[in-house]
Amino acid sequence: MRIIGGTAKGHTIKSPKGIDTRPTLDRVRESIFNVLAHRGLGGSSVLDLFSGTGAIAIEALSRGAASATAVDFRTGKLILENAMHCRVESKLTILSKKLSQVQYFIENQQFDYIFSDPPYQKGFIQDTINLVENHNLLSQGGIVILEHHKDEVFTTPNTWECIKEQKFGYTMVSYFVKPSERS
After folding, report:
1. Is the pTM of this model over 0.85?
2. Is 88 exposed, middle or buried (0-12, 13-18, 19+ CB in 10 A)?
3. Which among 89, 84, 77 is positioned nearest to 52, based on CA atoms?
């Protein structure tokens, strides 16, 4: 795996060993960041849930995000190694926590981009949506990017608008925006 764009472009990153991990493929990650390119990452805050290798958070920082928080209860040390290799560790917060524990560490924070790539078809997509909505983690105009199995069923809040869906084999990437309030 490698970082595709920005200051860390071309840097390779390590993946955790074992079959329980399914890192986001380079082509899927590239497509995600191509979709977000017109909005710009400059100065944004990013939350990367089920971070695994930290590739999404590191890619966002490489492309100009001001800060990122990577969450994965198993791979914090690996994420730090990858961030140091890509020289973005000073802008990265790593939480070695389960999803159910996250709200205690990011209370009163909002993020411009929230990525979630949990194990497929285990209910974690709905858990992610509930966490984001119940704790008001998404900033106005912010985007939630969910990577999930094409057959996974979930419900989003009425205040979220689906702006794009992409299919890669059995993988779907769904983009939801929380529209800015209008005066």
Report:
1. yes
2. buried
3. 77
Mean pLDDT by 10 residues, the chain (183 residues): 82 74 70 87 94 93 96 91 95 93 87 94 94 93 95 94 94 90 50
What is the C-alpha to C-alpha distance for residues 4 and 63, in angstroms, rounded to an integer?
9
Q: What is the pLDDT of residue 160?
A: 94
Residues contacting residue 95 through CB under 8 Å, at least 6 positions apart: 69, 70, 71, 76, 102, 105, 106
Residue 43: is it exposed, middle or buried by C-beta count within 10 angstroms (0-12/13-18/19+)? exposed
Question: Burial of 22 by CB count in 10 Å (0-12 exposed, 13-18 middle, 19+ buried)?
Answer: middle
Integer Cα distance of 113 and 123 in angstroms: 21
Buried b (16+ CB within 10 A) or exposed e, 126-139: bbbbebbbebebbb
Which residues face 31 on adjacent strands? none
d(CA 1, CA 179) in angstroms, rounded, equals: 33
